[in-house]
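Posted in: Structural Biology > Protein-Ligand Complexes

Title: Requesting predicted complex, zinc ion in pocket

I'd be grateful if someone could produce the 3D structure tokens for the following input. Sequence and ligand are given below.
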Amino acid sequence: MKQRMCPICEAGQLHTQTEWIDVEHLGQQGRIESHFAECDACGSEQAGATEARLNKRAMIAFKKQVQGLLTGKQVRDLRKAWGLSQEEAAKVFGGGPVAFSKYESDDVMQSDAMDKLLRMADEVPIALERLMAKAGVQPKHTIRWDNVAVVNFTKQKTKLRTVIRTSHSIENEASYGG
Ligand SMILES: [Zn+2]
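-- Reply #1 --
Done. Output follows.
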């Protein structure tokens, strides 16, 4: 990380420090790690753009937790499990081209509606499939639900044929096959 000169004394270097601070959201108490820069010469404490961004993210992550919304990491894990890029996810679910980048880094909170849609897509694979088809986004890998159905069907069919061959005449096999 590049060194930052203290703008107050113009002699010392700024070093990032953290401290736990008490915060509140919708009446719920919590603690977040707050970042600030401290000068090693004059000892002044300040929050630059870097610290302000980290502090904002920590607060948004806390708000998501309080409101029971998916965390940034959970959104990223879902998107990756679906094989979507951030741009594709925005095409499928809406929110604008940089929406997922912002949800995943805790730069913004997703709406209640977006949160519900993401959970629905996770619980009901056919819903995700439809949304992707409508957005013109091709699945990169076969969706789990599809996979399971195909495998079971093939296994059942094979088993049925084996039974017929060992216990029935050829005529019976033909009627089953039709
Ligand atoms: Zn200083």
